[in-house]
Amino acid sequence: MAETVSLERIVKAPVERVFALARQVERFPEWLDYVTAIRVQARSDDGRVVVSEWEASVPLLGLKARWVERDEWDEAEKKCRFTLQEGDLDRYEGEWLFSPHPEGTHMRLTITYEYRVPIGGALVQQLVRKIVEQMGQRLLDGIAQAAEQGSS
Fold first, then answer.
1. pLDDT tens digits, residue range 65-93?
2. If you write DSSP's letter for every residue of the chain in order, what string do you get?
3. What CA–CA distance (Å, rounded) separates 112 from 91?
4. pTM higher than 0.85, yes or no?
5. Which residues on neighbouring strands pair with residue 7, listed in sequence order?
6. How far apart are CA 7 and CA 108, in angstroms?
């Protein structure tokens, strides 16, 4: 059964800076301990579409996952929609929204995923949900920190 996780973060930096950092998917492993590699397979000339291969590992649980996702970045709307193209996940999609906020930028990340594990049932599914939540929050926190420090 698919699960949905929604996360939010206020960033004390302008939307343009935060959005530009978020588009740098190659940097995500800096902020995501479980992600061991991200390789961009294709990027459209205008940068709106990025296809990337991800590898993640959770040694404690003996879980490894590999997937290819397609990100569609909308500069005008300041949002990204991402979808699973192939891989070990049964379902992975979502939306990332960036909007002005009195303190800077409001980021909202929504992830819908399904990852069926053969053993462990409900307990493993709870741990997978926790990992997805942690990864999403660490990503938002990493981008926020980089944006607030003026990194690009």
1. 899 999 999 999 999 999 999 998 889 99
2. --EEEEEEEEESS-HHHHHHHHT-GGGGGGT-TTEEEEEEEEE-TTSSEEEEEEEEEEGGGTEEEEEEEEEEEETTTTEEEEEEEEES-SEEEEEEEEEEETTEEEEEEEEEEE---SSSHHHHHHHHHHHHHHHHHHHHHHHHHHHHTT--
3. 7
4. yes
5. 109
6. 6
